[in-house]
Amino acid sequence: MPLHDPHGRHIRKLRVQLTDACNFRCFYCMPEGTRFQPSNRLLSPEEIGDICAALETMGVEEIRVTGGEPTVRPEFDAIMEKLARIPWKKFGLTTNGFLLSDKLPLLRDLGCGHINVSLDSLVEGKFRTITGSAHFQKVHAAILRAKAMGFQVKVNAIVFRGINDDELPAFLDFSAEHGVEVRFLELMRVGPAIGEHDERFVAAREMMDRLGATDALIPVESPNDSTSFGFRTARGARIGFIASESKPFCGACSRLRLSATGKLRSCLFSDTGVELRGRDRLDYPEILQEVMALKPTGRLPRIHQPMNQIGG
Question: What are residue 244's phi and psi, to 5 degrees?
């Protein structure tokens, strides 16, 4: 049976956070001095598998594994193997790409065919400034390897005024050259990014105008509940824009979020939710109704909780 919230939105997607830990230190995501959840507070592979299997039987169709950085979780392989036994319509992963290359054979075997890689710059020095990591080449190579192996790969790039907004044409060239869709994200008012938001924010409309000055952007049809709206160019580039600040998509949102510690949440911008850990499966229908009723119908202004604690 399809899941619908009180406002008629079809709830069919689940974001599953494996950990809040990460091996990068992106300035907009993680405050200095961050302390991660101890391992004994995280859902076990068995708990994640059982919870997700139950939610699938109740109408959840698509799953995406997130973090922090999900691949740093020591039980990553075991968790993915358990999730792969569930008959999802779509099984995906969001990652920073640092450990991705070695995981690709496993992901291919498990049917996890959709990979989103966060890559905010194509310039090695800027990449280091944004992420605190010196491993741009490793991430870049992993993206191209995943594409060559047949994965559906998307690159997610948050655009910051005065830092990487001059790279919009370079990302367009990257997409055309390698056949990888690039999605440009507006900077959200989340966690440590709130303090720099007004200075660094670039609206999707401005990005489109700047790119459209040199390449005609041809609209591509997207599902009603897509977070992005897409375009292609005559050169073969495929790009999308996630305009969560200037053009919120709350009215068609189809997502729930399961935190690494077991809380089922209704929205990225709301820390309210219901703990599923230890709950009887017979309680799930009531819990789902409770959580779906928490979903806002419009964009909430901000959330001070850091992104690594929320899940991508």
Answer: -70, -20
